[in-house]
Design brief:
Length: about 325
């Protein structure tokens, strides 16, 4: 009996070693490190993306980190070209990119970009100093100096066109959100038109240092924008900023994380698994991640899902149209 027990133990030990070796072999084609394309410092993308990169690096014991970029449009190009493994983007720029309409590469269909997981909605909101006298969109004077974020970002791509459609004439400015916040406070800008996940760090910082107005869209403005742009109505909860006494009505666009379609399936599977199964950890990175949950994969109808991500969703009961899997 002792011999049988010993033999069984040896067989179990051998099986464990084989399983460990197999698991190690599965990682043989994984990258040695990875980069996540985020956006400018002071914006939600940078906080969310850098924190998520550090989390995944720790979970998978691989070197990784966030990179400051121009935002969603540039991230699509970086991932497509293999200069970043992962990135964060918005559905509007994503649609343009896969259809060859990216302003960074006109005519180039970016077909090496796959969706991984839903992030959050990006509200389009407007902030001014309280002493500016600007309390509504119609109050914005002709020629107002408006900061739209980094060039070619989601904000810079869509917000100027939205305001033009609403009859606003302006002097267009670009820059990182932190820098634009400083310019607003110093009187070098009249308005900042933000498209970023909430709470926007630059706005929260402004609130601490000075009095601001956070401006909403009225009913007619909402209707006009919904008819002309790929956005949805959105309410910024009053609890988001100390400045707000009630929810603020704006419009929004969904954000998704993206991966190079040629990344190993097992690698992207593990990244998706860790992200989708640890929402508490994700919310500790940025509270907008409360919507970083698998139920929200339905908001992507633009990008094909990476096979590794799709495998995790299907194993856990979330259906994806087979035509939407790379």
């Amino acid at each position: 009996m002792r011999t049988t027990t010993k033999t069984t133990a040896l067989l179990l030990a051998g099986s464990a070693l084989l399983a460990a070796a197999s698991a190690q072999a599965d990682k043989s084609d994984w990258p040695e490190n990875f980069t996540v394309g985020t956006a400018s410092q002071g914006g939600t993308y940078y906080v969310y993306g850098s924190g998520w990169a550090n989390f995944i690096a720790d979970e998978l014991d691989i070197s990784g980190g966030g990179e400051v970029t121009g935002g969603p449009t540039q991230n699509l190009a970086l991932v497509h070209n293999g200069n970043a493994a992962f990135g964060l983007t918005t559905m509007g720029p994503a649609s343009d990119a896969i259809n060859g309409k990216s302003p960074l590469a006109p005519g180039v269909k970016m077909d090496n970009v796959c969706a991984m997981f839903p992030m959050y909605e990006t509200p389009f909101s407007i902030t001014t100093l309280a002493d500016s006298g600007i309390e509504s969109i119609s109050d914005i004077p002709d020629g107002a100096r408006i900061g739209f974020g980094p060039a070619a970002s989601t904000s810079d791509t869509y917000f100027p066109e939205i305001l033009k459609t609403l009859g606003v004439e302006f002097d267009r400015r670009n820059g990182g959100w932190t820098d634009l916040g400083s310019q607003l406070q110093d009187g070098l800008l009249d308005v900042i038109a933000f498209a970023a996940g909430i709470p926007i760090p630059a706005v929260s910082q402004l609130e601490v240092q000075t009095d601001v107005n956070i401006i909403e869209f009225n009913e007619d403005e909402i209707k006009t924008v919904l008819e002309n742009f790929p956005v949805a109505e959105f309410m910024i909860p009053a609890s988001t900023y100390s400045t707000l006494d009630e929810d603020s009505r704006v419009v929004s666009m969904w954000n998704f994380s993206i991966a190079g379609c040629d990344l190993p399936e097992d690698f992207v599977y593990e990244v998706t698994k860790r992200t989708m199964e640890n929402n508490d950890r994700m919310r500790s990175i940025h509270r907008s991640a409360e919507t970083t949950i698998p139920e929200n994969i339905s908001h992507n109808t633009v990008l094909p899902f990476h096979p590794g991500a799709a495998r995790w969703y299907e194993e856990n009961g979330y259906e994806i149209d087979p035509e939407l899997i790379h």
